[in-house]
Design brief:
CATH architecture: Up-down Bundle
Distance between the termini: 37 Å
Number of helices: 17
Structural class: mainly alpha
Strand content: under 5%
Number of strands: 0
Radius of gyration: 20 Å
Order of helices and strands: HHHHHHHHHHHHHHHHH
CATH topology: Growth Hormone, Chain: A
CATH class: Mainly Alpha
CATH superfamily: MFS general substrate transporter like domains
Length: 408
């Protein structure tokens, strides 16, 4: 882990080399999350759990992440960041082992709530606020900050796409090694735990390169009002995203069009690649039209494409619309992260990242249960339609509320 090829992880000018470890850690987590989001519903169904329980377990993962992220925001200014990162990596390893070892609902629900499993296409984890604060502090200026967050998002998108492609591995194991589908799926969760160990080793070597922030008297100070307004708006966006996490979108494709696991993995792979390409354009677009406009005017067309996909009469058209959505829907991520870091003081960045990331897990925690209930009830188009409409409402509200902050 110490000899990391610098050319493979280029950094903006003036950014210290230890940032590369954070980018690689993000990539490894995205690889694991990419295939878990696709395989989770198939694994739970193979265990004999009904669709409604699939939604409940997805909710448990998001609710647990919310509680942990709040704790990070409240106490990270008192605890060393390296210690928190190492603890999170060990928790990821334990989560993979727990999901591979248990087969009934309540033990799985406990591991889902206490662990790091992510059924979403985005990063919902306790790693997130610490890593984002470090990236913001490492950037030499605003433009470098946006570029660095774009690389962070790109690492997540690219390796998340590769992870989705890995969802075809269980079918290969069944066909070529003769193992049962359930055992093949269990092996993938053991792989998730092994990736947690690899991240622990990666972050274990940062004690001499990762600087510690100066302690603060309170997690939030002068920027409290801004952070609370952003968090409230992000709640709407996150709840909408929770209605259609990748696990439920995969379930919709299975139920509506009979898509196979292998085809679903290939779809999410190409979807992730399109998302990856959009991350490269975000800094350039933000430089031209500003961070806030980049967030809003790429998000709304993506939501319109999702609404259209809900009423698609054929699988090819639905996949084309969803791929178009993927090319736009995450372009706001680096701009949003840079915007949050720009409107708060450096001492407040961990808390701001935590309290604005909480909606990614807390508000969206109710979404998978509702989305799963709608799918189980036969309302197959409802999660897509509700997700798109709520996201459009969020974008318009964000633009109205933060017009005067466009200069950031």
């Amino acid at each position: 882990m110490s000899a990391l090829p610098a050319a493979a992880w280029p950094l903006p000018a003036g950014v210290p080399h230890w940032v590369r470890r954070i980018l690689i850690g993000r990539a490894l987590r995205a690889l694991a999350d990419g295939y878990v989001a696709v395989l989770l519903p198939a694994y739970l169904i193979a265990l004999g759990l009904p669709l409604f329980d699939v939604g409940l377990l997805s909710t448990a993962t998001l609710a647990g992440s919310a509680a942990a992220t709040l704790g990070i925001g409240a106490y990270a200014h008192r605890v060393g960041r390296r210690r928190l990162l190492l603890g999170a990596a060990l928790l990821m390893a334990a989560t993979g082992a727990g999901f591979a070892g248990f087969a009934s609902f309540w033990p799985l629900a406990l591991v889902a709530f206490a662990g790091t499993l992510n059924p979403s296409s985005g990063d919902v984890s306790i790693f997130l606020p610490i890593e984002q604060a470090e990236l913001a502090g490492a950037a030499a200026g605003g433009e470098a900050r946006t570029a660095l967050f774009a690389r962070y998002a790109l690492a997540g998108s690219l390796f998340g796409a590769l992870g989705a492609l890995c969802a075809a591995i269980p079918a290969w194991l069944v066909a070529h090694l003769g193992v049962s589908l359930l055992d093949a799926l269990r092996a993938m969760f053991l792989g998730y735990g092994a990736i947690g160990v690899a991240i622990w080793l990666l972050y274990h070597g940062i004690d001499d390169v990762l600087p510690e922030s100066q302690p603060a008297a309170a997690p939030l100070g002068a920027s409290r009002g801004i952070v609370l307004r952003l968090a409230a708006l992000f709640c709407v966006d996150s709840f909408a995203s929770g209605l259609l996490v990748n696990a439920l979108l995969a379930t919709w494709l299975y139920e509506r069009f009979g898509l196979s696991l292998g085809d679903a993995g290939r779809f999410f792979f190409w979807s992730g690649l399109l998302t990856t390409g959009s991350q490269l354009l975000a800094p350039r677009l933000a430089r031209r039209i500003g961070l806030l406009n980049t967030m809003v005017f790429t998000h709304i067309p993506a939501s319109l494409l999702l609404i259209a996909a809900a009423f698609s009469p054929s699988l090819p058209l639905a996949l084309a619309l969803l791929l178009g959505r993927s090319a736009l829907s995450q372009m706001d991520v680096p701009a949003r992260n840079a915007f949050v870091m720009a409107v708060v003081t450096p001492q407040e960045r961990v808390a701001a990242a935590s309290f604005t990331a909480v909606p990614k897990s807390l508000a969206s925690a109710a979404g998978p249960t509702l989305g799963g209930a709608l799918l189980a009830g036969g309302w197959l188009a409802a999660p897509l339609l509700a997700c798109g409409l709520l996201k459009i409402a969020y974008d318009l509200s964000l633009l109205a509320a933060f017009q005067r902050h466009k200069r950031h």
